[in-house]
Write a structure and sequence with these properties.
Order of helices and strands: EHHHEHHEHEHH
Strand order of the largest sheet: 2-1-3-4
Structural class: alpha/beta
Largest sheet: 4 strands, parallel
Helix content: 40-55%
Oligomer: single chain
Number of domains: 1
Radius of gyration: 18 Å
Number of helices: 8
Length: 236
């Protein structure tokens, strides 16, 4: 299984990956990530990113996902979809030299690379779960509105993935499902267990795991419970 953890910056992806590796110890995290590309090449990033930066990151990510076949258990910190989202955001805001032609060149690369990923677990911003506080790691944009706008792009592509069979962003018959993961650290792992068994394999791999027909009322009730705030404790 090849799994990617995606979402806007400062959403707890690294924490989730750590918790995931503690739960499913058969998985490995690649030694290098896109951050090594930024450091090695000393490239501008975040809201200062450029064509050169985005291309270097995308090329690295596309190459990395091809290094692992379906027999390997690997979890990625972000994937080519994340790169495309940030490039689209930069293009939309006119904050760099990224233009429509560049986006058009990125889309088929991302679409092909995503065929090498089995599941994307995406951490969204929700109204019922507090957004993690900003922590500066040297790679994150400090504007809170940027995090929201990036998240909105992820949400749009998630709907595109699920609803549009003629999408330019995803191969219709060979694309990873995008699964929302939210809540506390414990709750996020519990949601993942709806899709992964104890060995980290997809639940019911021979069935349409991610189709509505496999979601039971118990699953729905469990997920609904996670979206509700915990009841306030009364003093005695």
């Amino acid at each position: 299984m090849r799994i990617a953890i995606s979402g806007s910056h400062c959403m707890g992806k690294s924490t989730l990956i750590g918790d995931f590796l503690s739960e499913w110890q058969s998985y490995e995290l690649p030694e290098k990530s896109y951050r090594h590309v930024l450091n090695d090449l000393n490239l501008p990033h975040s809201s200062e990113s450029t064509k050169e930066t985005q291309k270097a990151i995308l090329d690295f990510m596309c190459k990395q996902v091809k290094e692992y076949d379906k027999e390997k258990n690997v979890i990625y910190d972000r994937c080519p979809l994340d790169n495309l989202v940030y490039s689209m955001w930069l293009y939309h805001h006119g904050k760099s030299d990224i233009d429509e032609e560049f986006i058009g060149e990125c889309i088929p690369k991302v679409r092909t690379a995503l065929k090498e990923i089995d599941i994307i677990f995406y951490i969204p911003i929700t109204k019922v779960v507090p957004t993690p506080e900003y922590v500066d790691n040297g790679f994150r944009d400090k504007d809170p509105n940027t995090r929201i706008e990036i998240d909105n792009l992820f949400k749009l592509l998630s709907v595109e993935n699920r609803e549009n069979p003629k999408s330019n962003y995803f191969e219709h018959d060979d694309k990873p499902p995008i699964i929302e993961i939210f809540g506390s650290r414990h709750e996020r792992i519990q949601i993942m267990k709806l899709y992964l068994d104890g060995d980290g394999d997809a639940v019911a791999p021979d069935e349409n795991l991610f189709g509505d027909e496999n979601i039971t009322m118990e699953d729905i009730e469990a997920l609904e419970a996670l979206t509700k705030p915990e009841p306030k404790k009364t003093r005695r």
